[in-house]
Design a protein that fits this description.
53% of the residues lie in helices and 4% in strands. The protein is mainly alpha-helical. Bound molecules: iron/sulfur cluster (2 copies).
Length: 166
Amino acid sequence: MPFSYAPSSLKNLAKATHVSHRDLARRLGRKNPRDLDTLVHSWHDDLFEKGDCLECGNCCRTLGPRILPRDVGRLADFLGVSTDEVTRQYLRIDKDGDLVFSSMPCPFLEEDNHCSVYDARPRACREYPHMDQKKIHKHLNLALKNRLTCPVVYEIFIRLAQRYPQ
Ligand code: SF4
Ligand code: SF4
C-alpha cells in the first residue's frame, strides 16, 4: 500500500506546516520522554507495516547518507571488489568532510526502487528515518527536516499535532 503523501507533494506540505511543527517539537520536549517514545515508535511500526517503501524511494533518490568506513568494507565484500574500488567508483567527500555517494539518486537504487545492495546497505540507510530511536525528543530537529523527504515522518508529525494540540 502506498503512503498517504506522495513525494511530489510532500515538500510543499512540510514547508507549509514548518512553523506549527517546529513549535510542536518544542512543546514535545516537555512531555514525558518514555510516553513519547512509546507513541512515536508504535506509529512508526504501524506506518511501515501498512506502507511500502518500494512505492516511495524518496530518501534513496534525494538524500545522501553519510557513509562510515565499516560501510565501505561491507559494500566491498558484497560487491566482491576492494574498498579502494568502492571509494573510487561510488564515493566522494562532501563539503562537511563526510563520505557520501558521489551521485544521487543513489547508484544502487534500481528503477523499481529496490536497493541492489540491500543486505550490505550503509548503516544510515538501515536506520533512516530514525523515528524508532530511543529518546526521540532529542531527535526532533532532525525529524523536522526529514518531514520534507519521508511521508512516515510527516504523518507522525500530523498525528502528534492532533494528539497534542496547542
Ligand atoms: S544504498 Fe540502498 S538503501 Fe541506501 S540510499 Fe542507496 S539504494 Fe537506498
Ligand atoms: S524510508 Fe521514508 S522516504 Fe525512504 S522510501 Fe521509506 S517512506 Fe520513502
